[in-house]
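Regression test case RT-17, inverse folding.

Input:
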């Protein structure tokens, strides 16, 4: 597959309704809330700030490889139920739509996939749009649930995986959100708590 990144595990099979998007003549928008905002790894034709209601950005997924290990799991971001999330809506280019969808699926849907790809309303400066969002599957064994801020910070502060320290992943996310002028108070408070823990433990 063109653009395949060797570090990613094999992806779950693409369901028919998602595979059909590879041939659609309609615009396809993706709601990005984490690293897809600044490092999408697939072509995009347009991007705009967007608000998704009903879901929030959360460190709710255990990471046993990229940002942790089986002995000491880390945490990564997911879109979980409740609240709202500010992010970016990305429009995929019609001339390379199939390639963009394939790359997105390969990157995010490693088997067994932890997300459902759902078409949801988002609010942008140009009005309401429908965008596909990657919603965490609460029945997945990697779902950590709603951990307390203290427990979340403790896990993030001490986990290191194949792609580096979990605390660096949090710090990079918080920094990029600030650069994009996207406010996320809970994430900023979590980053400060993790840094305080790291300083206290030397």
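Golden output:
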């Amino acid at each position: 597959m063109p653009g395949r990144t060797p570090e990613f595990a094999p992806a779950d099979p693409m369901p028919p309704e998602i595979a059909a998007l590879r041939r659609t003549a309609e615009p396809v928008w993706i709601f990005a809330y984490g690293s897809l905002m600044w490092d999408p790894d697939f072509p995009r034709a347009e991007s705009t700030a967007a608000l998704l209601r009903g879901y929030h950005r959360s460190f709710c997924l255990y990471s046993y490889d990229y940002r942790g290990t089986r002995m000491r799991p880390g945490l990564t971001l997911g879109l979980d139920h409740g609240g709202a999330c500010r992010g970016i809506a990305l429009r995929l280019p019609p001339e390379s739509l199939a390639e963009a969808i394939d790359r997105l699926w390969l990157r995010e849907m490693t088997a067994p996939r932890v997300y459902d790809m759902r078409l949801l309303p988002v609010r942008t400066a140009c009005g309401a749009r429908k965008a596909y969002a990657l919603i965490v599957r609460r029945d997945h064994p990697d779902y950590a649930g709603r951990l307390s801020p203290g427990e979340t910070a403790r896990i993030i502060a001490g986990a290191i995986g194949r792609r580096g320290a979990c605390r660096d992943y949090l710090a990079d996310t918080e920094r990029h959100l600030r650069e994009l002028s996207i406010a996320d108070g809970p994430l900023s408070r979590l980053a400060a708590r993790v840094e305080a823990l790291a300083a206290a433990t030397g």
